[in-house]
Design brief:
This protein is α+β, with helices and mostly antiparallel strands. It has 4 domains: 157 residues, no CATH class; 118 residues, Elongation Factor Tu (Ef-tu), domain 3 (Beta Barrel), CATH 2.40.30.130; 150 residues, Threonyl-trna Synthetase, Chain A, domain 2 (Threonyl-tRNA Synthetase, Chain A, domain 2), CATH 3.30.980.10; 130 residues, Diaminopimelate Epimerase, Chain A, domain 1 (Roll), CATH 3.10.310.40. It contains 18 helices and 26 strands. The chain has a 6-stranded antiparallel β-barrel. The protein has a 6-stranded mixed sheet with strand order 21-22-23-24-26-25. It has a 4-stranded antiparallel sheet with strand order 14-15-20-19.
Length: 671
Amino acid sequence: GLERIVAVLQNTLSNYDTDLFSPLLGAIGKRAGVSYQPLTGRDSNSTTDVSLRVIADHLRAMTLLVGDGVTPSNEWRGYVLRKIMRRAMRHGKKLGLTEPFLHELISVVVLEMGSAYPELTANQPAIVQTVRREEEQFDKVLTDGLPRLEDTLVASERGGRTVSGKDAFRLYDTFGLPLDFIEDLAESRQIKVDRDGFDQAMEAQRARARASTKFTATETTRFSPRTDDDLASLTDTFVGYTDTKSHTKVEHLFQTDGTATAMLQSGEKGFAILDRTPFYLEAGGQVSDIGTFTTTDGGRGNISNVVRPVPNWPRMHVLSITESSLSVGANALVEIDVNRRNAIRRNHTATHLLHAALREVLGAHVKQAGSLVAPDRLRFDVTHHEPITSAQITEIERIVNTRIIDNQTVLTQERSTDDAIADGAMALFGEKYGDIVRVVNVDDFSMELCGGTHCTSTGDIGTFVLTHEGGVAAGVRRLEAVTGEHALHLVQKRNATLKQILDTLGATAADAVSTVKKLQTDAKRLSRDIEQLKVKVAIGIETANGTDSASSNETLDSTDIQGIKLIARRVSGLEQNALRTLADKLRDRLGSGIVVLAADTDGKAALVVTVTRDLIDRVHAGQLVKTLAPIVGGRGGGRPDFAQAGGRQIERLDEIVQQSRTEVERILATS
């Protein structure tokens, strides 16, 4: 709406002709070697101008999205981002921009909008890298996908001149080609694309995706429409921020098939809706609580999960009855597993500290992209364009543990959403927040909107150890860590392993690395010596005093074929490199001739052929090896003077030796 008002005030026919877009359109046009023509009511929709407007609009949108922490992917908002990025790239190719160019224009957007969105300026390097990486990936998509599209179009030309929806979706889903890209190329050759069939295939894919994300077992229960209406009007009270147990009343019970029931007997499972509960419902990455219940009339059972199958429903406690029964209206005492909750609290607060430390070490572009807060570990996904180095990981651990040692207060309070964000509270992009939100604040270090359970002070975490860092998607890194007792157990286990290694090495921690390096050097030297001895033994030139009688041919077992010497031999115990060395030595000792060696190397057949330079016009090593390799079920090739092959059938190596004589005779007879 504001852009339209600007267009009216500046007396233009389009938002694109205002001073908000004109610098960007000018920069794109200069890069493409074309000029943008403002709308005049005539000739205003030339393909060039349309492409320029599409690129400008999408470039601005992608800059803002990436600046907000969204990364290109095949799901949700990441999919929307990838779609507009690739559409802009496609229109760039229409303008002749065959090389990645969008990332070069990010600076123009930042210059125009950085004052209104300061995070764009701070995150500009990360935005540029993310866009460039996606451009390079799309180029690879086109390289891989265009030959398949061409095959599909050729087949369509021979058929009904229509690309089926199934084929179009395969090109889209498997090879990443955008549908409009497929349609454009098809239209240029007067070929139609079955859009309805494509939409059907897409919907089938979405249905499969939805099915894969549903609750499992009893948590997939369908509830009747009448029950739906009843549940939508119910409310329950969550007291888990302050209490770990609560007296409550059973409002509703359901069997595992969703049928309402007045009672669940011992041995049965089902769902219970309670009027008050300390059990946390999985949200924001934090898993649900588990625990027990006891009724005033002797009923007992376990609560294994808390679910909400439909938004705005009350919490449903997944439970099993172990003693007596549970009835609607019963009064019960419900208790969460306190030790488990405490472990979860430690991990959740540690996640907030980790997020702040990542932004401090890596930069303000880092945004949360996913998380898991479980009792035994935490997992945190963040937007970042490259692997996190060992030095950075060490610094991140140091920062988090320093905050833990300082035992800073963790303050939670309810505030208005606008005020919290204005004060710098971190909010997840795409999350919907009410007017009032819960803010978790750790001194001046971390402030986030969060509905999870937390420690009262950072010292409760105990200690923090990062256990893993890796990539899970383009521009997204995943970190995993443990805290508290789990961190202690991990450190103890590592220390025990280290002690075992040091005892085995007979070294101290201070000289362990140098000891291992010396062992590696010695092992490599011994391996080389052993291979050299094997070659000498195989060649038959090892003398009593350990020197080569390299000037003697007495030990060479060669066959004379039409005046040409051939050594064809099966050898054993040699690695591939040693086999090549042996072949070279035998060739050199022959002076003039052919060497064929066959060996069992690591359970596979290996074949090496060498030919002295004076004979390569008559016998080509590469051609000879190609005729011999099929004997052992393999293939190979090489130069005129050297070739090698591999195969699976080691039991036929002797046939190689026999057949090599026959093949050399055949080749010489025809040369």
